[in-house]
Specification:
Largest sheet: 8 strands, parallel
Structural class: alpha/beta
Strand content: 15-25%
Shape: globular
Number of helices: 16
Number of strands: 17
Radius of gyration: 26 Å
Length: 447
Amino acid sequence: MALTGIQIFKLLPKTNCKECGVPTCLAFAMNLASGKAELDQCPYVSEEAREQLAEASAPPIRPVAIGKGVRAFTVGGETVLYRHEKTFFNPTAIGILCPSDTPDADVAAKLKGLNALQYERVGFNLRPQVVALKDVNGDKNAFAAKAKTIAETTEFNLVLMTEDVDVMKAGVEACGFKRPLLYAATAANADDMGALAKEAGLPLAVKADSIDALVSLTDKLTGMGLKDLVIDPGSREIKQAFEDQIAIRRAALKNANRSVGFPTITFPCEMASNTDMEALIAGMFIAKYAGIVILSDLNGETIFPLLLERLNVYTDPQRPMTVIEGIYPIGDPAADSPVLVTTNFALTYFIVSGEIEGSRVPSWLLVKDSEGLSVMTAWAAGKFAGDDVGIFVKKSGIADKVTKKELVIPGYAAAIAGDMEEELPDWKIIVGPREAAHIPPFIKNLG
């Protein structure tokens, strides 16, 4: 049972150190009880108290880690129903279905195509993460061979899909080192599937015919000592599936129902007859509130908008979207190419880089960390001051890449030119246009 704020307060150090971000330990305890804070924010809580508070401070939806390597992911761990209340933490994992009887050559081709679906945006590598290997004929040897191939020859992680415990055991033996998700424990096989997941230390998906039926299964499995569960209420009709996702999220967050406090897995591949409709359904589930979505196939036209939707939904609304500070070459610049500098607000970066690219003048774009503020706002807030920008230019390493020491600064930050000239005596500081649309003719005429 969850502890009250006062019960939590009695276990805290009562130092009122403010290091957790709130004025008093009592305020922190109240935030902890309401799910608005995490126990790790208190640097002085004792180990004894930490053990007692672990359950109370755990997210209402358990975070579950799946996979190994660069495409490993975590689902769940969410604490709010609406993103503007705080933020969503663990992005929906996107994957494809692979039947176990698919010819090896077709599997290799599909995985090669899937691996190519990677996009760089605002410093993030956006890509699908998982392959759901589905047993279609009960052939455990074929299932294990496919699982082994995918696990050993690709970066993709796996969902092993079978209700046959013997087939699942073969799959686990072949790729257990990759920490696959086992799908699925049902009313008919919960004991055996639960025992296998516990022995192997792997996350387990639970499938039922309704949310109510899920509760008894998750209670049974958690009673066996299993904690890393992913749930599927079994709904495949679009309206019902949508309602189930919301009902599960509300029950976990608003009613503190630990029996459904787990991330969900959804199957648009089983809900539509074509990939376009699957993509629309997947978009719905990314917004409300799937932990994993599995489609029958992916291509650039379907995956790119889904990845962008996911990026936007899982970006903290209280913090501006930013790009990583550094040097961005645009159009294969040379040692005598123009050098421009701007802030790391993502929208500013995309507009400026787009105009430079459109000018067809190869250039170096320096992006300075301004805590996600635009040029004018960053300058007014002291985040884009002349001396700071000058120090950034020195440390960036751009001087080693160019022979023409001319630096174009944004017109809205013209006031920093003097300070930059003092900080960069070897550079010629040029005040650029105020509007990004005027960049192409400006850099073409730099000479």
